[in-house]
Amino acid sequence: MSQSKSLPPLPFREWKFLDAQLIWVYEGVPQVANQRSVSNRYFTAWGLLQGEVVLAAGGEEVRISAGDWVLLPPGTSERQFSEDARILSIHFEARWITDQALFELRVPIRFSRSETRGWRELMQPMLATIRKHHPHAYNRLQWEEMDFERYVDLQGNFQRWLARLWGEMQRRGELFFLPQNDDPRSMEIKMRVDAKPLHLPFRLENLAEEFGLSAAQVNRIFFSAFRTTPKQYFERRRLAQVKGALLSSSQQVKEIAFGAGFRHQSEFSSWFKKQTGSSPSEFRKRN
Fold it and tell me: Does the keyword Transcription regulation apply (predicted)?
């Protein structure tokens, strides 16, 4: 991936590698009003309808007043809302399949009323759908059952809102990550890794043999395009599968561990904690 302020176009087929998903949208009083430390795995944007909030993240403090918006990167933040605060908030995923975030942010970004004209109107159809069909889903919207028409409706409205945010971020010259596939073998390697079963061990040497290359060459080609190695990418795919199973199924932890290729639950728990900072049971309980 490459960082750029002047964003080049991508081939149509490569945009499918951007995982841009609506997680939740909400209007009302802040659900987490005042806490010294709040962790979020996703991007969050708030429009302050009333009151004000002081945010601290990435070593920077931002004061947001009514009419303004703020974009928060994934991670830990502190917030102090006024008692009369009301917000319009949207949580969303925007990552490439190699786990690189679309927006390269470390601190909150404030947007004025003039910069966000039309954002609220674009979010109203999403709010209406969620209030009618999924009022209690919160951050489990991804695992709510819905028909194709409703999915397309929600995602279509979200994509239109994201396009507005994209345009404003680009106008400001903020940093993005975009794929740079100068070597066509990078996509072939990625497709081969995608096809490998997640319950079987990943062998870089075997992958290299399939292409008649050395392990070092495969790593170099893949890393230059995606800023990660094939092994790291495989592990992220396996972690995503495990997280989904923990959050959306009633399977026991040991069953999930076995399905991900671990012979012992203790080995799985150690791997999961190294990846996420919490045990599988803690992750399931917290989310």
Answer: yes
**Quick one: 153 and 200 in the same domain?**
no
Structure tokens given for 94: 């925007």
Question: Phi and psi for 73 in degrees, rounded to 5?
Answer: -75, 160
pLDDT at 248 over 50: yes
> Do 208 and 266 reside in the same domain of the chain?
yes
Where among 121, 155, 178 does a domain terminate? 178
CATH number at residue 224: 1.10.10.60
Q: Is pLDDT above 90 for 286? A: no
- Reported as a single tens digit per residue, the pLDDT across 103-116 is 988 889 999 999 99
